[in-house]
Amino acid sequence: MRASVTDLPVKFAEVVILAGGVAILDRVSIDLAAGQPTVLIGPNGSGKTTLLRAAMGLVRASRGRITWGGRETSPPTRRAIVLQRPVHLRRSVAGNVAYALAAAGVPRAQRERRGTELLSLVGLQGLGGRPARQLSGGEQQRLSLARALARDPAVLFLDEPTASLDPVATKEIEDIVRSISGRGVKVVMATHDLGEAKRLAGEIVLLHRGRILESGRAQDFFAAPMTDEGRKFTAGELLV
After folding, report:
1. Which residue from 183, 178, 161, 181 is spatially nearest to 170, judged by alpha carbons?
2. Rounded CA gap, 66 and 214, in Å?
3. Cα separation, 82 vs 74, whole angstroms
4. Phi first, then psi: what are they for 65, rounded to 5°?
5. Residues 136 and 191 in one domain
6. Residue 187 located in a structural domain
7. Are 63 and 22 within one domain?
8. Does some domain include residue 165?
């Protein structure tokens, strides 16, 4: 059962995050509200991963405010994150999901049924008994999604979930993202793949050197970027 309190919207207000005196995020202000997926784009080192981790609550703001549903302190019970290189337990596929369900506080009597539902949702039905570390790269990423969804999140953060995957595995992940979004979960995702951003995004956020250069509806951004950096990036030019 979903809790009555939601983590949405996630709001950044003039957020600065420093590492070794360097601004990884520089005066970032953004509202991540319910609705279609928000996709973060930008070159390596632009701050995409740091923004996701901060929105999850894994990184504190050096300056500025981050709030979840209007609260400055919010335990991550209604949000989940899938990192680019997830690590799985030395257990079966079903065992990994069962562990995630237990950690999420799902009653023991409900875990088998819920685990079966989650594996079906990510296309891993029939693989519950296989050791998780013997899965292919795409299958491991789908297992990571199942584990994240065990928390029944209101918002799901994805850090380049299709990096290094072949086109077939990429399409499988994208289909799952659409399905998750269609169930009312807010997806906030980082990607280097402009094609993927066009296919999935309702909203685009372009980051460069820790700052947001553009944000808004994806169709507007791709039709007519408002900044020189946006025009260069969508044309495949390097941002330095």
Report:
1. 161
2. 20
3. 19
4. -130, 140
5. no
6. yes
7. yes
8. yes
Residues 174 and 72 in one domain: yes
Report which of 206, 158, 196, 231 is spatially closest to residue 41, judged by C-alpha positions: 206
Q: Determine the Cα–Cα distance for residues 76 and 52; give it in Å rounded to an integer.
A: 13
- Rg (alpha carbons) of the chain, rounded to whole number: 18
Label residue 5 by pLDDT band (50, 70, 90).
low
Same domain, 145 and 161: no
- How many separate domains does the chain show? 2
Give DSSP secondary structure letters for 171-229.
HHHHHHHHHHHHTT-EEEEE-S-HHHHHHH-SEEEEEETTEEEEEEEHHHHHHS-SSHH
**Phi/psi-derived region of residue 126, left when phi > 0, alpha when psi is between -120 and 50, beta in every other case:** left
Instruction: Identify any residues that bridge with 187 across adjacent strands, giving them in sequence order.
Output: 156
- pTM, full prediction: 0.94
**Any idea what the CATH number is for the domain that residue 185 is in?**
3.40.50.300
Residue 64 CB neighbour total at 10 angstroms: 16
Q: Same structural domain for residues 130 and 160?
A: no
CA distances from 187 to 34, 139, 181 (A): 9, 20, 6
Beta-bridge partners for 205: 40, 215
Instruction: Give the chain's mean pLDDT.
Output: 94
Asked if pLDDT for residue 3 goes beyond 60, the answer is no
Cα distances (angstroms) measured from residue 224 to each of 193, 214, 233, 240: 18, 11, 12, 21
Is residue 12 within 8 A of residue 66, CB to CB? The reply is yes
Which residues constitute the domain of residue 166? 1-78+153-240
